[in-house]
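REVIEWER CHECKLIST
Item 1: Sequence provided? yes
Item 2: Single chain? yes
Item 3: Sequence as submitted:
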Amino acid sequence: MTTTNNEEVPKHKEALLDIYSTKEEIEDKFLDPSKITGSLKERLPQPTGWRVLVMPWTGPKKTKGGIILPDESHDQIAVATTTAYVVKVGPLAYADKEKFPTGPWCKEGDWVMFGRYAGSRFKIEDGELRILNDDEIIATILDPRDVKHAL
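Item 4: Structure as written out by the authors:
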């Protein structure tokens, strides 16, 4: 505390840091593909037929400038995202040689792009997953941060 005119003034405290006390807590608030362990992956649904299970990229909860995004803004970005990490591929995905003469468009572990409203969404404990048809994948990318996500 600082003293001015015999009054104690509390030190400046970041308001949002009251909610998130540590950097680890901030980072744990979004689903990260690198944190998927073998047991967690086994518990996720296995896509059937020609479907692909993806984890939409949600991005960090903190901007480059250090601003912590509110949950509502972060959720809007997550819903509007068009990039995702391929978690599992169904047994018939990319099996149609007439439709995919050059082979699969993606595989497990790839980052992909898809249409904004493509697939079926469902929630899990720490985030959201989508099940897409194999032909809804429109591109593969190296890093989801390279794609600008507009609302």
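Item 5: Key structural point noted by reviewer: The chain has one domain: 15-146.
Item 6: Recommendation: ____
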